[in-house]
Amino acid sequence: MRLNSYDEWSPLKEIILGSAVNYTSHERELSFELFFYDQIATQTSFYDRMYYPHHTPPSVEPAAKDPSGSSPIKQRYVEELNEDIEGIAETMRSLGITVHRPLDLEQSMEVRTPAWPAAVVPPLNIRDNTLILGDEIIETPPQVRSRYFETQFLTPVFADYFRQGARWTVMPRPLMTDDSFDPSYVKGGPVEFIPNPQPSAYDVGFEMMFDGAQCVRFGKDLLVNIATANHALACDWLERHLEGRIRVHRVHKLADGHIDSMVLALRPGLLLVRTPQVAEALPEPLRSWDMIFAPEPGANNFPEYDNDDLILTSPYIDLNILSISPDTVMINEACPELIRLMEKNGFTVVPVRHRHRRIFGGGLHCFTLDTVREGSGAEDYFS
Fold first, then answer.
1. Do the Cβ atoms of 245 and 35 come closer than 8 Å?
2. In-domain check, residue 383
3. Contact, 225 vs 263, CB < 8 A?
4. Does any domain span residue 5?
5. Residue 113 — very low, low, confident or very high, per pLDDT cuts 50/70/90?
6. I need a labelling partner for 246 at 20 to 30 A (CA). Which of 67, 142, 240, 351 fits?
7. pLDDT digit string, tens, across residues 250-274
8. Is a pLDDT exceeding 90 seen at residue 184?
9. What is the pLDDT, as a whole number, of residue 29?
């Protein structure tokens, strides 16, 4: 089928599901630390936490980091994640959805640019580095060095859609020297800031860096979260590129980056929102929509981890659900509170198992990239 995905809720026909094959560690260098930084690290209520609380409160022993700068991931977590991903794929196929997969990562692969080297990670959270807008694939400029060429693993799928008529665009790639990153979001927070950025002959100042998961699609309108100068530059590019086709609406510092654990569109006129405070920050057209406010996650919803395990996401990661249609949603089976709430609001819930989302930094929406949904085009839901 031809690429066609303008919103988050129309009946789903085709999707790409990420891969965790040969995921062995997190590389703890500047870009990783900035990406997973959370300004609010010591709040006691889940309601006060942002999307990616990477640093731990002072009373908690931080995850181990070896001299090479990486934090190893236990193999049993990877094996269980791969089991869960295959279960998700099978559930999707049982719903009549065509599931595409990226190429697998070969073990111990490294990427090197003129400015830095980095160990490559698998194409797992594929929502991050690609934005699908209607009949166009837009590869976004990465924010983490180890993911610089992640979209290359999706090339066979993208090439097939291109042959069927899709547009295929790559946003400008950043050099990603230490000087390229805007650290203003994290300065002044209650935890340590990353010290001593290194000068480089390739410094050009702040550059475009931006993830597709900073966006929520509403047909003719695109909601975009901006937290840094890097995001703002990329959004400038998007606005110019999409002029006359899609309207861009900026929200500022709704999260440090991704907003699909803050707000998701369930169907025209209905949002899933983390808190009333998030709702107040939305553009005026969306504040008139009906809203379902997510329940606070239960403490038993998550596996217990060792002190040397690096936790990348907040307990609100499971708000990161995937819409199969305007009345059917896929939700992690470990979230009974959210499942009951969605069923109470008339939704059919498709439960799937996803155990280690906090270790690998993504929920169901993060792991997937919907490429074909039913619909006639860029509908106007804001007027």
1. no
2. no
3. no
4. no
5. very high
6. 142
7. 999 888 889 998 999 999 999 999 9
8. no
9. 87
Helix (H, G, I), strand (E, B) or coil at 15: strand
pLDDT band at 193 (very low <50, low <70, confident <90, very high): low
Report how far Cα 140 is from the mean position of its chain's Cα atoms: 12
With a CB cutoff of 8 Å and minimum separation 6, the contacts of 79 are: none
Q: How many CB atoms lie within 10 A of CB 65?
A: 16
| 317 neighbors 262 (Cβ within 8 angstroms) | no
Paired tokens of 145:
């060095």
Looking at residue 354, which CATH number applies to its domain? Answer: 3.75.10.10
Q: Strand, helix or coil at 161?
A: helix
Domain region containing 98? 12-373
Selection from 369, 265, 259 nearest residue 317 by Cα: 259
Contact between residue 274 and residue 180 where contact means Cβ atoms under 8 Å apart:
no
Percent of all residues in the chain with a pLDDT value above 90, rounded to a whole number: 73
Pairwise CA distance, residues 258 & 47, whole Å:
16
Nearest to 39 by CA among 314, 262, 236: 314
In a domain, 6, yes or no: no
pTM, two decimal places: 0.91
pLDDT category of residue 96 using cuts at 50, 70 and 90: very high
Domain count, the chain: 1
Q: How far apart are the first and last CA of the chain?
A: 30
Structure-token match 């998961």, residue found = 213
What φ, ψ does residue 21 adopt, rounded to 5°?
-60, 130
Identify whether the C-beta of residue 16 lies closer than 8 Å to the C-beta of residue 322.
Answer: no
Q: What is the DSSP letter of 317?
A: G
Kindly provide the residue ranges of all beta strands, DSSP E only, lying in 171-275, ordered along the sequence. 215-218, 221-226, 247-252, 263-267, 270-273
DSSP designation for 103? P
How many angstroms separate the CA atoms of 268 and 325, rounded? 12
Q: How far is it, in rounded angstroms, from Cα 108 to Cα 310?
A: 20
The DSSP 8-state label assigned to residue 214 in this structure reads: G
Please check whether residue 101 lies inside any domain of the structure. yes
Q: Which of 31-35, 104-108, 348-352 has the highest mean pLDDT?
A: 348-352
Q: How many Cβ atoms from other residues are within 10 Å of residue 119's Cβ?
A: 18
Query: 193: which 2 tokens?
Result: 């800031």
Q: Which amino acid is at 182?
A: D
> Distance (Å, rounded) from C-alpha 14 to C-alpha 373?
7
